[in-house]
Structures are given as C-alpha cells and as structure tokens.
Amino acid sequence: TVSFTNSHAQEKVNEKQATASKRAAASGKALAEIAALPAAESIPPELLAKAKVVAVFPNITKVNLVFQKAMKGSGLATRRTAEGWGTPVFYQFSMIDSGWTTAEAKSPTIIMLFLNEATVNEFKENYVEIGGTIAGPIGETLTETDKKRMEGVRLVAYGFRDGKLIGVKIEESDSTQSGMYVDNAMNKRTFGAKGPDVFFTEAFAKGVPEIEELRTALTKFVKKSDK
Which phi and psi angles does 175 have, rounded to 5°? Predict the structure, then answer.
C-alpha cells in the first residue's frame, strides 16, 4: 500500500513538472515567433522598451456558460530587472463577462505589457487586475496618435494567431471580472515557493530548462528595443 501511494504521488509530481515545462515551452515559442515577425507587423520597439512586466498566455480557450461568456488560460509573467529579465512565474488568466460584451481576444495566445513601475508592485499580491486593458499598436514606430493614446496607460495587450499579431482589448464594466491569478500549484512544484516570492527573487531561475529558454526567448523578443 505504501509503495502504491508513493508511486501515485510521484506520478502526480511528474505530471505537474511536465505541465510546467509544456507551458513554459509554449510561451517561449510564441515569443520567438513574434520576435521573427517583420517590424511593420510587430510591436513597436519604443513600446517594448517601456515594458516593466511581460505576461504570455498561450492557448487561450473560450467558454460559453449559461448566462456568461468567459476566456481562460495558463501562462507566465516576468519582470524587467537591471540584469535582464527575472524568473518567469506561473499564472492563470480568466475573463468572465456576464454582460455579453466583446473582449476582442480572438486569438489563442495573449501577450500583455505592463508599462509602469506601479504595476510591478501589483505582482506582490496573488491577483493582478487586467480589466480596462487597451489594444496595443502595431508597427515599426509609435505614431503621434499612438503616443497620445498611450499616455498614462497601465497595460496593453496583443493577440497572436496563425502568424499574425493584432492589438486586443479587455473591456471593463460592472458585469466583467478579469484578472491574473498566481498558479501556486505550478510555482511550488517548479520552484518550491509561492509566485510573489519567485517573482521578486533571482535565485529561482535555475532548474527547469524551458524556463531558461523562455527567458532567452523574451530577451530576443525585446532585442530591437534594447539597441
């Protein structure tokens, strides 16, 4: 009995490790594909340079409930540091809209850029608000219209599907609940610590090859803005 229990527990551990690796690999793949896009079809480098936190949610799924529409998914988020990018932390994404408005996230991958220092502190908590996200601009440079639209903006989002990047917005209303939730089941299994602790500590970066590959992909993703 003890042997069976231990074997079952190890299977669960292996399953979680495989899931963590798969999510990190999918996020890194999406960033690599976006980084390879022509400049005119990608995120303006000027905007990437402002990103304090980048969150990637591949394979977003839509769910139609009885009186609601919803989107959900799993991914990772990481912050910019003086040395580069911190350890990517596992998060869950959800958007519930009982008002039947349009979230305009018609893509299996969502990328979010948090643009100011205040947003970094929000990651000290287990929940990060994403309602009111505006659609990010596409192109080699920010137009004057884009710059005005970006003034004081906290968060922009993009969708990526079939090799095409589009700006998407997540509407905010009394009927909409949208957020990122720390996936501590994944974080504890991968790093041995809770998400907020991992997010602000560099010591957790090693141990999962796909995590390091994701950091490499993120570095390439923003390389144009670092020139």
Answer: -95, 0
Query: What is the per-residue pLDDT across 60-82, written as a single tens digit (0 to 9) for each?
Result: 877 665 555 677 889 999 999 88
| Backbone φ and ψ of 12, nearest 5° | -65, -40
d(CA 26, CA 210): 9
CA distance 127 to 119: 12
Query: Cα–Cα distance between 172 and 81 in angstroms, integer?
Result: 30
Query: What global pTM score does this model have?
Result: 0.85
Residue 103 has pLDDT above 50, yes or no: no
- H and E: helices and strands count for the chain: 7, 11
- Measured between alpha carbons, how far is 23 from 20 in angstroms, rounded to an integer? 5
d(CA 54, CA 28): 12
Q: Which amino acid is at 47?
A: L
> How many CA atoms does the CB half-sphere of 142 hold within 13 Å?
16
Our CA angle for 88, 90, 94, nearest 5°, is 130
